[in-house]
Amino acid sequence: MEKTPLAFRTHVTIFGNTNAGKSALFNKIIGQDFMIVSDVSGTTTDPVTKAFELLPFGPVALTDTAGLGDVSEIGAQRMEKTKKILNRTDFALYAADSTQFDPAAYREAVQAFERLHIPHLLVFTKADASEADYREQYPGSLSVSVYDDASIAALKQALLEQLSRLKPEEETMVGGLLPAGSTVVMVIPIDSEAPKGRIILPQVQFLRDCLDHGIRCIVCRDTELEQTLADYSAPDLVVTDSQAFAFVDKLVPQAVPLTSFSMMMARMKGDLKQLIRGADAIEGLSDGSRILMAEACTHNTSHEDIGRVKIPNLLKKVTGKQLHFDFYAYHDFPADLSSYDLVIHCGGCMINSKSMENRIAFCNDAGVPITNYGVVLAYGAGILDRAKKIFEQ
What we know:
alpha/beta, 6-stranded mixed beta sheet
């Protein structure tokens, strides 16, 4: 669990006003003096995330944020960063200073949580310095002191119980699509974009997901696919890097289902059906149409970059139009989508499901269609109907 990527951890964020004891609480929860703790308001300037294991629940990503209500010179910028964290928060802890509790600030935070369907726990801090007890007024809340290990233990137990209710259903790429004992061929091209000495996260995750569900995997490069198919009886599914869709489609018999790692990842992390519908907007693009390319990671780009080079070139070729592309990476995502005709998102392997779900919802609210890399590449290769068929069973 220690090596579980942040994208596959449950994200818990501590919110609250400045100097409410958020950083001290953060340190106590993870059991390390990780954050600087000070009586000076605004000590925490940027959100900081630390991975830890909340046993027996599992891997968690805990984030400490700059305080709300910051009236310092750069307070507005700090609070803007804090608010952006909401989009990837699965569960919120609201730290309220029991020596100077601000009910209005708490109500405002609750409204923000409710807008994004984020469950939360109200935690009154600095119980050692206050005689006030708000727990009767706010049922379900906790009162803690960083100097009282028993109160911190009670907080961890409450957090454990709350998180255990979050995701009753398993997040899976392949579970429910194929029965145990099935055989899958994974096609992984090795080109200049492939990381040296390893394979990329969606491929690793898919392989592990198959093993978890008792599904046999045969892994090959696109250059060995023809021989692989000859050596083994017809597999139950072929999954390829979406950039090789057109080539792989020609080799795999039509009776064998074919899809991509990107579409598998989208099935697990977002609304794949909506992403597939979003591809319909490609036909309506015209000269000057603006397209937002959203990639959830940061990496050096090259002449073979899928998001910045290959897909823009493909769409210009398929539509015959002069299109305008804007590029956003990692957690950057524009607050105003009104000028865009289409959003094309990567598979989302480097962000958590909550982030992906919120981005899709944000596009819905703005009336802007959204699709993803794998869907667009299948569309461009003329095989989207085939690539989506495995998900319609």
